[in-house]
Input
Amino acid sequence: MDNHFKRLKDTEGLDALIESYAGRPLVIFKHSLTCPISSAAYDQMEQYEGSVALIEIQNARALSGAIASRFGVMHESPQVIVLRKGQVFWNASHFTITADAVAKAVREAGEAP
Output
């Protein structure tokens, strides 16, 4: 696994990461270890050059559900959520997950007031 992925397994880890990214966009990638569509999205996220908080659904179901509830984004897998100042700025799922789309969303989140 590339070093730009940081595995998250619990809400405490997510909270700490959100706090450490206070002024920067945070990319969260929900990934299923058994889904071929998620595998294609994973390949795209490997091409993305920034840091990625990786949630492997099978290993962190409670965290995945907590994210859906906390941020009001219906759970999907694969799914990318870009947070800005702890709030959802952008999200995508399935085949709309591309390295370019994520990079664009992160740039826009970084430029937003």
Notes: The chain has a mean pLDDT of 93. The radius of gyration is 13 Å. The beta strands are 5-7, 26-31, 52-56, 79-84, 87-93. The domain at 5-106 is CATH 3.40.30.10 (Glutaredoxin).
